[in-house]
Write the structure tokens for this entry.
Amino acid sequence: MKKDKKRPLTLQNYPGAVLILAFMLFTGVCLILTQAQAASGKAPDKIRIGNAISLSGPYAPGATTTQIAPYDMWLKEVNAKGGIFVKEYGKKLPLEMIRYDDKSDIGTAVKLIEKLILEDKVDLLLPPWGTSMNFAIAPIVTKYEYPVMGVTVDSMKIKEIAPKIPYFFVHLNQPPVKAEAIIPLLKELGVKTAAVVHHADLHGIEFAGYVMPQLSINGIDVVLYKTYPMGAKDLSPLLKQVKAADVDAFLAFTYPPETFLITGQAKAIGLNPKLFYMSIGTAFAAYRETFGANVVEGVMGTGAWNPKVPYPGAKDFWDRMIQAVGPGKVDWYGNAFCYSSVQVLEQAIEKAGTLDRKKIRSVIAGNTFDTVIGPVRYENQINVQSPGEVGQWQNGEFEIVAAKAKRTANPIYPKPQWP
Amino acid sequence: MNHATAKSKKYLSLGLPLLFLLLLAVAPLWIPPYWVVSFNTIFMYIILTLSWAIFSGPTRYISLATAAFFGVGVYAMAMMGQELPFPIVIALSGGLSFILALFIGFLTLRLKGVYFIIFTFGISELIRHLVLWWETKFTGTVGRWVLMMDYTTAYYFLLAIFVITVLSAHIIRSSKFGLALKGIGEYEEAALHIGIDVTTLKTITFAVSAFFMGATGAIMATRWTYIDPTIAFNPLFSFMPVLMAIFGGIGPFYGPLLGAAIFAILEEVLITKFPYYYMLLFGIILIAVILFLPNGLVGLLKKGEKRV
């Protein structure tokens, strides 16, 4: 590990060399310890699933709420029924999860994915949380040929490189698809003017990039358009400008912390447009819990899922989900998408009848799967789910109000006053 | 007899590092692949800490701009990695960081103490926001994909940079140049009065250390495969080298090296087993070192040596 000491060559240098030797020994022992639990490689008696995800750091709340909870529930349920039947071995194989904390750090995430693949030799992988994390692992899982279904990926940039990353699938409906749901809703409700704000990160930039031109094409006047830096702690000056602009609709493309911030501050300064829309975090039950169902009444948000959807198992899934984590901790959007991604994985393993990842990949790529979010089919590895949804809090439930065909309730418009 | 021991020690102190180098060079052929991946991170921390110590060690100017130079390297790779061969991009990345450091150095190395610390920290934040603004404004998005380099290739690139860093650190230390730097650290006014061109000297050393940071950033970018300004200019890369160097001891140059290596390995071992204890342990060790070992591990070793 070291090299130095061609200089003075006096007694002083000698301890340096000893030190280096000791250090080498230390390295060796530590690494051997780490290695001790490496996998043995004969006929499998279980399916080992690796998941490096944020258990600490800024991504942890989102990761826990949206992904970890449904993954764990799925794992428990599959094991309760004995595992997944794999034809190649003629028996059901239970699942084992190996989970690591990536500390919300991309370098760690990438390293841990390679650890799971190279050292733990897991059979399959589940994705991390967040767009950039998923982007970072996509080329790696492709290199090692592990099919992965990214859930919390929210950027159409993935489309450009999809041919280069055939093993990475995108399960969430993407910004343009979600934007498609907003515009018809605004037109239907007769919105004439709008204010658009968003954070300067991938999600906000892309989302606004799709919505802005659509607004003007459809004759909705964008009176105010502003961006703000991520991690902003006070947005009230911006919200006061929105209030002064007196628009019909307020559209904010946000991450969870900003969603909470904007809600609190809008209420405080009395910004109450007829349509109040924010993106990520609005669908969290924690959002409703923080402010109270009466406060969030009428607030709209990106993406929605509701147990009233006409897909098999939806209602049952939601009951189990709420039972597993509690009514205040579910995510009315991401949980169903996340669960449906592992439904696809489970069905793909059964259909492929093997743990051969190449075969599993081609089954995923070439079939349609029935899940709690409806039939899932990938086109160029992107889940074809169009149009997307807009949700609205109504009596403590996050109802789907757009697209019209998917509606579980009629939109409330105008939004009631803050209590 | 005395003569003979001195001589054998001489060979030992020369031969041992060469032996290690040889071992490291052939290591990827026989160690498990994930170890190679781990070594990459360990190398990264060692190079960052060591290059930080090249400048901050003797001069005692605490720089928090490591993330800036590292990030510039990361971005240089992200932007040029698709078009140019890796070695050229790595050299260019180092070069860009070098130039940036020259520029920053000329501007700021007249500042002293806490002003300098804050300024260097500000610089890396400034660059981060500048890149963010640029990307949002002109490319309409924020992240970039980087061409992937496999871990063994990255290993050899990092090993090469590591060796060059160690050699430079050594050469600078044992030259008149290094002596002058030490003079600056001990009493800058006096150094000035005996005719040392203090500002130029500091600036050039600052830039040399930035070169290695940039080159390392370029290689790490290929390992991360996707980057954005927050990832590239993560302030952690400014703080970690300082902490690691304090832990190891800033005096002799194997101090930072040791500190970085131990912490990087500790992280490697703890992160998968006890993810929450890593930072906790890090904090405890650091407090203990500051309280009881003001000169770091190296100070402890020196003490032991004197007793012998």
User: Anything to note?
Assistant: Chain A has two domains: 47-174+311-383, 176-309+388-406.
